[in-house]
Amino acid sequence: MTREEVEEEIRADLAKLNCAQSNFSLPDCAPADPHVLGQGPEFTYVYRDTRRTVDGAELVFLFVEQMTVKLVRDAEELTRAAKKAGLLARLRTKRGGFGCGADNYSRQTWMEGHVRLMSAVHEGWGTRVALNYEMMLRKFPLTQEERTNSRKLDLSAYGVE
Known about the structure:
The chain is mostly helical. It has helices spanning 3-16, 56-79, 87-93, 107-121, 123-139, 144-149, and strands spanning 35-37, 42-47, 50-55.
């Protein structure tokens, strides 16, 4: 695939989710993160300090995955409900937002939503993302609070049940 074909495929995949971006183009230089070097058929995918040589199909997956995880994390954040924070939660809140105990954050909520979004684009992609999250959760299991706080995101705006 050429760079233009990759960009067109990404646009088509986003359109499947009612997120058409007719002007989308692959970032080609830092400080954009990630960015892509090359015109195809092989590309260098640069993310933070990591460089990977990938083909066009993998590049499409990587960008659609990145864009859809942002969609579901934003959707998850909008569904959070604040809780009366105890002392530990108040102390944790000073260090950052996610999972500090001041709300009903749950990784399971956005992970499940991300799998649904990726499956809507390509069934195999949903499976790939699900397996990745399964491996992550084996290493870093959900807390009891995250299991309790898990909820199903409304992704109907993206054409997903």
